[in-house]
Design a protein that fits this description.
Helices cover about 65% and strands about 0% of the residues. With about 90 residues, the chain is mostly helical. The model has no long low-confidence stretch (mean pLDDT about 75).
Length: about 90
């Protein structure tokens, strides 16, 4: 699977079902990817980690997120497909 694939090409329900049990491992892998290259601000790191925890608890949903947090969730989706494709 290429990380260039579009998220819309996957059935969101099937992806959520497959990811449910391994969600913490996926989120931690994506967090490591998001931290490269080094040099992110403490605020960026805190936001990445906070949204990672949100995904672990709630799955992939925008409910309750502000615009900045939704953009971080979008990055999680992109980076998740990159990590899972390796």
């Amino acid at each position: 699977m290429s990380y260039n694939w579009c998220f819309q090409s996957f059935d969101a329900r099937e992806f959520e079902l497959a990811a449910r049990n391994s969600r913490p491992e996926i989120v931690n892998s994506v967090l490591r990817e998001m931290m490269e290259p080094p040099g992110h601000s403490a605020r960026d790191v805190e936001q990445f980690e906070r949204i990672g925890e949100f995904i672990i608890e709630h799955g992939l949903t925008y409910m309750g997120l502000n615009k900045a947090d939704a953009e971080v969730l979008d990055r999680f989706v992109f980076d998740a497909f990159h990590v899972l494709a390796e």
